[in-house]
Every structure is written in C-alpha cells, then in structure tokens.
Amino acid sequence: MSAEFDIAETLDVKGASCPMPVVKTKSAIDGLAAGEVLEVLATDPGSMSDIDGWADGTAGVELVDQTEGDDVYKHYVRKTE
Amino acid sequence: MGTDTPDASAADAPADEGPAEDVPADEAPVEDVPAGEAPSRAELAARVDELEDALAEATDDGGKKMSIIATKGTLDMAYPPLILASTAAAFGYEVTVFHTFWGLEILHEERSKSLKLSSVGNPNMPVPNAVAALPGMDRVTTKLMEKKIADNDTATIEELLETSLDMGVEFQACQMTIDLMGYDEDDFYDGVTTGVGAATALQDMAEADIQLLV
C-alpha cells in the first residue's frame, strides 16, 4: 500500500478530538510542497469521515488512502497544488 | 436564465411589424446601423454571455465565506461557533465570527477561561431543576464538564480560539455590548477586532455563503 507513494511527513494527532485532527492536518499540509503526501495518525473515529469530507471540500488536497487498524486511523493526504 | 434573457428581449426588439411611423426613441439607433454591419443575434448573445462572465469574475473574489453570530457565553454554547470557525478556516473559508451579548465572554481573555455550564433548564442534567437551582450547583456541573473535556482530550475554549486566530479567523467584539458590559478593548484576546456593530455583521452575512446564529 505505502509502496504507491512516499510519505513526506507524519502528523500524530492521536488523542485529539474534533476539530483538531482536521485543523492540524490543514496546518501540516500548508507546510508541504505540491505532490507530497502527509500521513495522519488519529484515534478519533470521526476522523475517518471528517478528513475525507475536508479533503473533498478543500482545494489543493486529495485523499490518497485511509486505513483503520488497532485503534489508530491512518489518513494519507496529498497536496496537489 | 442568463442566456434566456438576451434572447427574450432580442425577440421583442425587431421593429418589422406594427405601425412603422411610431418608432420608440430607443429603437431609433438600430435603424442607423447599415444592414450589412449590424451584429447578428447570435453575436449579440455571445457578447452578452462574455460580459456576464466578466462581471461574475470581477464581483466574485473566489473564496468562500462563512459568517457566524455568537450570542451565548455558557461553556457548552461556546464550542459550536469555535469548532465550526476553525474547521471552516481549514476548508479555506474566510471566516468572521461576530460576538455579541454573552458571546463576548468567549473573546474575553480572563472570563473565557472560566465559562460556566448552567445546571438549570437543561433536561439532560442528571438532577431535577429544583435541585439544580441550589446554590453552588452550577459550579459542580461546570467542574464535571471540565473534567470530561480534559479526560476526552477535547480542546479547551482558549486552545480553539488561539488556533482559529492563527488560521486567520476574524473575531469581532460588538462595540455596543462592550460598552453595555463595561468591558475594555484590552480585555480581549490579541487579534480580536473591536469597534464594530450590526451593520458590519450584516455586511458579512450578505457576502457569506454560510450564515449562522449561535
């Protein structure tokens, strides 16, 4: 899975709840260059829907993948422009 | 709609019927254009579309806007405007939150750290109103709520406010209520806009894609 793209940076928001996973993801994405992928580690179950919705409604970002494992939700967001 | 209008009015324009001697003044210039040089209806329609697009581009600055009016100052009611404001900012919205009446407490640097939860009038409280009305009960329910917030790692009001400010959210403190409550401009967080009134809020709402009263 991770072979498909390189992770430029990892953001750990484990423990944080709404709206912080989305807000911190946005801030971290701002620091990346176009084309780079951010990995977000969260424990908030709502982050699955929220980061998906945020990526869908926000210009310049694209949700590449989301996985759900041992209480940690992983999100991969690419900065497209 | 935009393309229908020029067609509809163009259909009325030709003066090839009715009494020719009584041509309205505003149609006279059409007859001055030599027949060979008159633009076709399709050309005119295309030109109208072009102008409409240019107008839309000139009047729309591209970004989406959200306008929130925050009127409540209890601990529970302070959350929704701040959560929505910071989230909308993450979406790239230009966000304005206009705080009036008890909503001012959220922007008050000192008082925002001790917002209270009311135990009376909330049927979800585990105690009946008669008990909830006893002296000190608000302090008890507030403490319980603060503990839940800490245990759940939910952001505090101060954190949400600072984060939102960092993200470019504009927080406005209603001047009339500042005066009414006897507050001072320096009482508010750095970056809070003062000296604004209802007209400013209305202007923001008129321009916004989302308007909320909380």
From TrEMBL, chain A:
SUPFAM superfamilies documented for this protein: SirA-like (SSF64307)
Stored InterPro entries: TusA-like (IPR001455), TusA-like_sf (IPR036868)
Keyword Transferase: yes
PROSITE patterns: UPF0033
Protein name (Swiss-Prot/TrEMBL): TusA-related sulfurtransferase
Protein family: Belongs to the sulfur carrier protein TusA family.
Superkingdom assignment: Archaea
Keywords carried by this UniProt record: Transferase
A Gene Ontology molecular function term of the record: transferase activity
Residue intervals of the UPF0033 domain: 11-35
Automatic annotation (TrEMBL), chain B:
Gene3D superfamilies: DsrEFH-like (3.40.1260.10)
UniProt cross-references to PANTHER family, sorted A to Z: CONSERVED WITHIN P. AEROPHILUM, PEROXIREDOXIN FAMILY PROTEIN
Region annotated Disordered, chain positions: 1-43
InterPro entries for this protein: DsrE2-like (IPR032836), DsrEFH-like (IPR027396)
Biased composition (Acidic residues): 14-30
Organism name: Halorubrum xinjiangense
Protein name: Peroxiredoxin family protein
Biased composition annotated in UniProt, kind: Low complexity: 1-13
